[in-house]
Structure of ComF operon protein 2:
Amino acid sequence: MARELFLKNYMEDCVWELLDQVLAQDPEACRCDSCRHDIVALALNQLPPRYVVREKGVIYSKLAMLEAQHRADIYRALTQALMQVKKAPRHER
Ligand SMILES: [Zn+2]
């Protein structure tokens, strides 16, 4: 059977992983699915992608979290995105 490969932006996993930490700093922030996705999308657009090659059907162990500098960048991008979404959520308050 042919191997089916695909690309995965590993940065996406990192951003989702840090999202809850950033939200924990801001009790007033909306935590609905729409806002969470908006925050992650905005943050990802500020961050460089980190693509890895994956093979369909293969279970991969989680890559080690990015180095401290990258974490700081992700944290900053998420914090900015959170403020943007808070100012203009795409739904009624
Ligand atoms: Zn919301």
